[in-house]
Amino acid sequence: MSTPTTPAPVPPGTPPAPDPSTSRPRRTLGIIALVTAILGFLFAVIPGAMLVGWILLPIAFVLAIVAMFQPPSRILGIWALVVSVLGGVIGAIVFVVLVAGAVDEAFSEDEVTVETAAEAEDAEEETEAEAAAQDESQNESEGESEGAAGQVGTRDNPAPLGSVITGEEWEVVIDAVQLDATDAVMAANQFNDPPADGEAYLIVTVTTTYLGQDSSYDSMVDVDYVTADGTVITSSDNFAVAPEPEFGMTELFTGASSTGNIVLAAPLGDTGLLRVTPGLFADDVFVALN
């Protein structure tokens, strides 16, 4: 049998041998801080995950500060601090840009188109054969006429009665305007106030069609009177109930339509216009009285 060897005695004063498990400095905290900062940076610039980024970045910032005071993790802590601060700055910029875009989209005016009754009749009468037979010069002239037609609805070139005014959520048609309708308005309700001196009531008949989602009230469409000198008169400027059916009291779902009357006061003999706003943020369209 072999005799086990006895280790040589350690001379007095010799330091103990280092433990291999503790000889390498630990950088765990620095690694955690840096990984958290990188993840927070990435999530902070992703629109659908920004909340996660805003949670991770402060955590990474605190861990980085602590790691900087631990010599093994100092370098990683510095990098984690830089990444977390940079992620916060860039994430804030991305957030501001997204909010600004959302606000601009929410409050931007809807694009409004105007189609006169004559244009609608021409579109119905045009056949595919006639469209195919048009040559290049005709197409160019049509493009020019369409461009000119696109200017219909301004104060200088108001749309005629019966024009179809289409916004993002509402389609509006001014069916008729009854001038000097004071007697009809006073007969509609005994409590109606008479118009002011030098003014007369007029009745505007409006048909609205809701194009948006779910439902809405036709009161979202505004119809005002603009005098020749540019003064705006709204229906709320007088205390008169319109003859039935009254406009602005009907809830409509998608595709539904309603027709109602609006009472406006106008100076006698004034050659003003109607201003139609087909929705809360839609552009104004001006319509002639006849």
UniProtKB/TrEMBL annotation:
Entry coiled-coil feature ranges: none
Q: Per its record, how is this protein called by name? A: DUF4352 domain-containing protein
Q: Does the keyword Signal apply?
A: yes
Question: Region (Disordered) spans which residues?
Answer: 1-24, 110-161
Q: What is the lineage of its organism?
A: Bacteria, Bacillati, Actinomycetota, Actinomycetes, Micrococcales
Composition skew (Acidic residues), residue ranges: 110-129
Question: Compositional bias of type Pro residues: which residue ranges?
Answer: 1-19
Has UniProt tagged this entry with the keyword Lipid biosynthesis?
no
Keyword annotations from UniProtKB, A to Z: Membrane, Signal, Transmembrane, Transmembrane helix
InterPro entries in the cross-refs = Immunoprotect_excell_Ig-like (IPR029050)
Positions of transmembrane segments: 28-46, 52-69, 76-103
